[in-house]
Amino acid sequence: xxxxxxxxxxxxxxxxxxxxxxxxxxxxxxxxxxxxxxxxxxxxxxxxxxxxxxxxxxxxxxxxxxxxxxxxxxxxxxxxxxxxxxxxxxxxxxxxxxxxxxxxxxxxxxxxxxxxxxxxxxxxxxxxxxxxxxxxxxxxxxxxxxxxxxxxxxxxxxxxxxxxxxxxxxxxxxxxxxxxxxxxxxxxxxxxxxxxxxxxxxxxxx
Length: 206
What we know:
The chain is an alpha/beta fold. The protein is 40% helix and 9% strand.
């Protein structure tokens, strides 16, 4: 956990004085990129909430900031659900590139995109490759699934990767203080710590 105490690490919730002060000492920003699409009984933005929660946890650990709100991107084959918001890869690519240029110009040197949706790489990968070709500046990309598989293996080498994505998703809702957004069947138990979360206090994923 970072020893630096900040009022918030969400870029859009800081005032400009706080951002200027932060950039005097560090230059890390996480950019969670998600979707709003059908997901059964889960909220349509659950594949944004996962990367956003993970980003906030990592920002706390390394004294970084988070650019939030990027949840409307290419979904793929879920437009049969009317809760899905579809954006083309071309539109998403152009928008993300504009944001990367802005962040670079404002002084952010370590930009880390985080996604959890499978087709996200169709937008993110060409964007960051082209950005590098144009600027010779690296942008990192973390895919939530493989990252959590790695974390699970570190916590318990006997396990074969990450076994419970729902558990991780629940943890991200806790980190963002929005568990009330989840639909829980009457009488259902709150997820308990197992799989990746072994060794952590049960029910506490913050």
